């Protein structure tokens, strides 16, 4: 009998490979199809995310055992081999016999002709040892430094090249390594309905005691271990929101106050929108836009769950929003390459290309430029991304400031950030994943003159 966790992980990964599905959505779909124990859910998640995260390295490790080349293989067979090598080399506590046995059984179910081939490849792989770092040492001897980092951390060469150029070799190495460590679950307490202390006590009453206070945001809690927060009554009753602690720093930069009229130009899924509403005590108006109706509904659903009434979830492009009258403040949480969130979105490594960056910077500048035109004099525009590339971050901000010829100016955000980050502010702040075990974000604030 195939392990339910491996069966679920396989169906997730084959959808990613064949249908170009996002791993998080494919996994949700697979988990919804069958009832798994918490332990099996955790294992299925680790196998699915880990296999995608380490795919580049896995393929290098597999290549010597597949004479005809990996590209010639059927997706189903290659998926089975990839997820099996991930388990054998990165999840060493799993019995090798269980991994190989389930791999062969999977092959028999989905592509019977490949079962003996899968068995032979995995047995050969096991005979040569499963210490992947030792294996890589021999493969990396003839590679340059960028290629070695790419292979070690499993990122495409162009990403490694950009990060090394921006942050230097040592820090880039740390950033890449951080992107391979699963993130803890951070939650933001809904201050309209609860306190950090009351939520901590309620979690403890349910046996969830491995909790830490956030180090960057007062309303944050970090929950250790594999917890499905969305199944908790606290979540369903609107007392907390799942949100990376680094992301929690962005909405307060708007300096929202009760009664304000604020625009969130790219609002889905609604985490920052609802945080703004909480900071405004759910008074005033927040117009929250997205270009897809399904995402607009996600914003509306989040507001409903949190009992927030001040948000108007709207379908539309933020660049078309009229500022009549002008807004008190505008948030531009711009679409980006996502290089700061690859631990949670590992398929970005396969999906993003270097060519995407140029197209994104044009969109980002358009959004920021329009935001600056529809905010009132003296009002703030906060520009944020979840990427680490200066081309999408400070260079966009400086470009728009220059183009608007004195209409807006860069505002100092150091006083609105934790003391541990204040001295890192230059043209805004880039928060990288290795600093505080958060996702990576960029944030800057402009003021309309």
TrEMBL record:
Domain of life: Bacteria
Compartments, as annotated in UniProt: Cytoplasm
InterPro entries reported in the protein's UniProt record: MeTrfase_RsmB-F_NOP2_cat (IPR049560), MeTrfase_RsmB-F_NOP2_dom (IPR001678), NusB-like_sf (IPR035926), NusB_RsmB_TIM44 (IPR006027), RCMT (IPR023267), rRNA_ssu_MeTfrase_B (IPR004573), RsmB-like_ferredoxin (IPR054728), SAM-dependent_MTases_sf (IPR029063)
Residue stretches in coiled coil: none
E.C. no: 2.1.1.176
Name of one Pfam family that matches: NusB
Span of domain SAM-dependent MTase RsmB/NOP-type: 175-449
Active site: 386
A Gene Ontology molecular function term of the record: RNA binding
UniProt: S-adenosyl-L-methionine binding residues: 266-272, 290, 317, 333
Gene Ontology cellular component list: cytoplasm
Keywords (A to Z) from UniProt: Cytoplasm, Methyltransferase, RNA-binding, rRNA processing, S-adenosyl-L-methionine, Transferase
Main localization (coarse): cytoplasm
UniProt catalytic activity: cytidine(967) in 16S rRNA + S-adenosyl-L-methionine = 5-methylcytidine(967) in 16S rRNA + S-adenosyl-L-homocysteine + H(+)
Function: Specifically methylates the cytosine at position 967 (m5C967) of 16S rRNA.
Family per record: Belongs to the class I-like SAM-binding methyltransferase superfamily. RsmB/NOP family.
Protein name (record): 16S rRNA (cytosine(967)-C(5))-methyltransferase
């Amino acid at each position: 009998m195939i392990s339910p966790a491996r069966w679920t992980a396989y169906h997730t990964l084959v959808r990613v490979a064949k249908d170009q599905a996002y791993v998080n959505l494919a996994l949700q779909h697979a988990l919804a199809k069958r009832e798994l124990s918490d332990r099996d859910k955790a294992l299925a998640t680790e196998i699915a995310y880990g296999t995608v995260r380490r795919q580049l390295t896995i393929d290098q490790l597999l290549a010597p055992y597949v004479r005809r080349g990996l590209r010639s293989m059927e997706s189903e067979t290659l998926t089975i081999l990839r997820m099996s090598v991930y388990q054998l080399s990165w999840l060493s506590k799993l019995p090798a016999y269980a991994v190989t046995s389930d791999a062969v059984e999977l092959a028999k179910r989905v592509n019977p002709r490949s079962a003996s081939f899968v068995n032979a490849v995995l047995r050969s792989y096991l005979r040569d040892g499963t210490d992947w770092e030792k294996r890589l040492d021999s493969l990396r001897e003839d590679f340059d430094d960028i290629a070695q980092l790419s292979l070690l951390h499993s990122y495409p060469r162009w990403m490694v090249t950009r990060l090394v150029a921006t942050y230097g070799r040592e820090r880039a190495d740390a950033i890449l390594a951080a992107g391979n460590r699963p993130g803890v679950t951070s939650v933001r307490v809904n201050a309209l309905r609860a306190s950090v202390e009351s939520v901590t006590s309620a979690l403890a009453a349910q046996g969830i005691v491995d909790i830490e206070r956030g180090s960057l945001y007062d309303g944050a809690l970090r929950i250790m271990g594999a917890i499905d927060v969305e199944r908790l009554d606290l979540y369903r009753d609107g007392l907390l929101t799942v949100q990376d602690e680094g992301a929690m720093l962005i909405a307060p930069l708007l300096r929202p106050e009760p009664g304000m009229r604020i625009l969130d130009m790219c609002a889905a899924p609604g985490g920052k929108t609802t945080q703004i509403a909480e900071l405004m005590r759910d008074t005033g108006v927040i117009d929250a836009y997205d270009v897809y109706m399904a995402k607009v509904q996600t914003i509306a659903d989040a507001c409903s769950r949190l009992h927030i009434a001040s948000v108007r979830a709207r379908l539309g492009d933020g660049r078309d929003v009229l500022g009549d009258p002008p807004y008190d403040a505008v948030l531009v949480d711009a679409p980006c390459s996502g290089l700061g969130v690859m631990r949670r979105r590992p398929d970005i490594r396969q999906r993003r290309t270097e060519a995407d960056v140029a197209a994104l910077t044009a969109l980002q500048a358009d959004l920021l430029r329009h935001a600056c035109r529809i905010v009132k004099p003296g009002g703030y525009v906060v520009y944020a991304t979840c990427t680490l590339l200066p081309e999408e971050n400070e260079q966009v901000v400086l470009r728009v400031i220059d183009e608007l010829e004195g209409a807006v100016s860069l505002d100092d955000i150091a006083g609105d950030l934790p003391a541990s980050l204040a001295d890192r502010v230059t043209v805004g702040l880039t928060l990288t994943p290795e600093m505080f075990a958060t996702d990576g974000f960029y944030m800057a604030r402009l003021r309309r003159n």
